[in-house]
Amino acid sequence: MLRYLLQRLLQLFPVLLGISGITFALMRLTPGDPAEIMLRADGIKPTYEAIEATRHAMGLDGPVHMQYFHWLYRVLHLDLGHSYSSSRPVFTELMNRSPATVLLTGCSVLAAVLIALPMGIGSALYPGRLLDRMGRVCALLSVSMPSYWLSLLLIYYGAVKLRVFPVMGMDGVSSVILPALTLGFGMAGVYIRLIRSSLLDVLRMPYIKAARAKGLQEWIIITIHALRNALLPSLTLLGVNIAGLLGGSVIVETIFSWPGIGKYAIEAIFAKDYIVIQGYVLWMAVVVVLINLTVDWLHLLLDPRIRLR
Question: Which residue range or ranges hold the ABC transmembrane type-1 domain (predicted)?
């Protein structure tokens, strides 16, 4: 197992290097001069001399490949540059907003699991019955309802009508419930159907019949023998969703004014703050590859067949 994880870690470096090169190139192809944008953000009417002096100070007047190597050297020292609009370090801003995004991600995953796991198992154990039909309706609503529409519904009923939850912002534990329900319910539909289909396939396997022939109780067969293998496809999909949530859910964070990474990224896009966008894309790449590595490690723990291969 250790050898496999070391091989995967070594494979991450060329992936991240390639992503950093593509990100740097795309930012250089975007319209607008970073030096002029930075001067306008400071309220300075840019002249040709001021723009050239700022470009020289930012290192933008040299060859492109040297700019990339200088930028990559700073990235390796956790320096993603400074924002054009706020003049603050991008890495510091991402770290300051990460706790809010991690909190929202954890609560959203918890909400999705609490909805999808019992409904998916119930639908598989009682196919064609009332619980299965309820699971189908819930899954259909989940995948069909846009997140912005569900956000507005939860704000209207939970915050305006009932006045139980705050409308927006991060103010206590209750403020995370509405955005977490929005994201969790949006993910739950896919997991309900995936858990149902995977568990139905596993329950038809010969080792399940052998366990029943031995006289094991049904709840032991379901929870220990069947569910462990049935959750492997869901675990892979969950890793992808967690990576996306850790990058910030732009729509939900904007609607609820949640001070996370997604809101920070959308503000940078509207402000044309290219250095922030560049750092955000690289942050997303690191998060995705690390989450994928974690999912592979969990697969090794849950499925002995992978370790044998």
Answer: 98-299
